[in-house]
C-alpha cells in the first residue's frame, strides 16, 4: 500500500533560512508552500517587534492555525516553514497530521546572527536570537525528521534533504526505513 504524501515542516531558529529553504523544497517537490510568519496574529508580531519573546500561551493559537494548514495538506503534501522550537510544539503540529516530517535547519549562533544582521526590517529583532536558542529543543529520534547544517547553499540543503529521505516525502525512505 502506497503512503499518501505528508507535509514537511522546515524548522529552526529565526534567521536559519526556513522560509527560503522551505520555498525551494516545495518548488522541488511540486507541493504548496506556506510561511508560518504569515499566520501570526498582530499581537504576536507587535510583541516580537517590541523585543519581547513569545511564550507558550502566545504560540498555542498560532500553532493551532498552522496545524490546521498541515491537516488540509495531509495526504496531498506541502511544506510549511515554522520555528517549531519545542518538542511540545511539534507534538501539537503532528496532532493535526501525524505523518508530518521535520527538516531542522541547524546553525551556530554566530552563523545565524550574521544572517539576521543581513535582513533589516524583519519583525523578529536580532536581540531575540538568544531566546530562540534557549527555547530550541533538538529533534528527537522518534520525531521523523532530519537535521541539516545551514552553512551551505540552499540548493545543497534541498539536495541533502532529498538524498537523506530518498526523495520521498511520504514518511518513508526509498529503502523502506522510516525517516
From TrEMBL:
Q: Which NCBIfam families match?
A: therm_gnt_kin (TIGR01313)
Q: In which pathway does it act?
A: Carbohydrate acid metabolism
Keyword set includes Nucleus: no
Q: Which gene encodes it?
A: aroK_2
What EC number(s) is this enzyme filed under?
2.7.1.12
Q: Which organism is it from?
A: Mycolicibacterium aubagnense
Q: Does the keyword Zinc-finger apply?
A: no
Q: Check the record and name the PANTHER family matching this protein.
A: GLUCONOKINASE-RELATED
Protein name stated in the entry: Gluconokinase
Family assignment from sequence similarity: Belongs to the gluconokinase GntK/GntV family.
Q: A Pfam family name for this chain?
A: SKI
Question: Keywords on this record?
Answer: ATP-binding, Kinase, Nucleotide-binding, Transferase
Q: Which reaction does it catalyse?
A: D-gluconate + ATP = 6-phospho-D-gluconate + ADP + H(+)
Domain of life of the source: Bacteria
Amino acid at each position: 500500500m502506497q503512503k499518501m504524501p505528508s507535509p514537511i515542516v522546515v524548522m529552526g531558529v529565526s534567521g536559519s533560512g526556513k522560509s527560503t529553504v522551505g520555498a525551494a523544497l516545495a518548488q522541488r517537490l511540486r507541493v504548496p508552500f506556506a510561511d508560518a510568519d504569515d499566520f501570526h496574529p498582530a499581537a504576536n508580531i507587535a510583541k516580537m517587534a517590541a523585543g519581547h519573546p513569545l511564550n507558550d500561551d502566545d504560540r498555542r493559537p498560532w500553532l493551532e492555525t498552522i496545524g490546521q494548514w498541515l491537516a488540509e495538506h495531509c495526504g496531498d503534501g506541502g511544506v510549511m516553514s515554522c520555528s517549531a522550537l519545542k518538542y511540545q510544539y511539534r507534538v501539537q503540529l503532528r496532532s493535526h497530521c501525524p505523518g508530518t516530517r521535520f527538516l531542522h535547519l541547524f546553525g551556530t549562533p554566530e552563523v545565524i546572527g550574521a544572517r539576521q544582521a543581513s535582513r533589516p526590517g524583519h519583525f523578529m529583532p536580532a536581540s531575540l536570537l538568544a531566546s530562540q536558542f534557549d527555547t530550541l529543543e533538538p529533534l528527537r529520534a522518534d520525531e521523523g525528521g532530519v537535521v541539516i547544517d545551514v552553512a551551505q547553499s540552499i540548493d545543497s540543503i534541498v539536495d541533502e534533504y532529498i538524498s537523506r529521505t530518498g526523495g520521498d516525502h511520504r514518511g518513508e525512505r526509498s529503502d523502506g526505513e522510516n525517516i
